[in-house]
Amino acid sequence: MVFRSEEMCLAQLFLQSGSEYDCISELGELGLVEFRDLNPSVSSFQRRFVSEIKRCEEMERILGYLLREIQKTHIAVPEEDESPLAPPPRQVLEIMEQLQRLEMELSEVARNKEKLQRNLLELTEYTHMLKITRTFIHSRSRYEEFPTMETDSVSGCTGMQRLGAKLGFVSGLIQRVKVEAFERMLWRVCKGYTILSYAEVDENLTDLDTGEISKSVVFLISFWGDQIGQKVQKICDCYHCHLYPHPENDEERADVLDSLRTRIQDLNNVLHRTEEYLRQVLQKASESAFSWVVQVKKMKAIYHILNLCSFDVTNKCLIAEVWCPVSDLANLRGALEEGARKGDATVPSFVNRIPSSDTPPTLLRTNKFTSGFQSIVEAYGVGDYREVSPAPYTIITFPFLFAVMFGDLGHGIVMSFFALWMVLTEKQQKKKRSSNEIWETFFSGRYIILMMGIFSIYTGLIYNDCFSKSLNIFGSAWSVKAMFTNQQWTNKTLQTNSLLTLDPNVTGVFTGPYPFGIDPIWNLAVNRLSFLNSYKMKMSVVIGVIHMSFGVVLSIFNHLHFQQKFNVYLLFLPELLFLLCLFGYLVFMIVYKWLAFGARDSSQAPSILIHFINMFVMQGKDLAPLYPGQTGLQIFLIVIAMLSVPVMLLGKPLYLYWLYRGGKGLRRRRGYERVRRVSEDDTSAAASYEDDDEDEGLDEMPGREALPKEFDFGDVLLYQSIHTIEFCLGCISNTASYLRLWALSLAHAQLSEVLWGMVMRLGLRMTTRVGVVFLVPVFGLFAVLTVSILLVMEGLSAFLHALRLHWVEFQNKFYHGTGLKFLPFDFSLLPSVFEQDGLL
Amino acid sequence: MPSLLFCGPKMAACGIVISIWGVIMLGMLGIFFSTKSAILIEDVPFTEEDIRNDKNPPGNIYGLYTQVGINCFIAAGIYVAVGAVSLCQVRLNKRQEYMVT
Question: Coiled-coil regions in this chain (chain B) (predicted)?
Answer without folding.
Answer: none
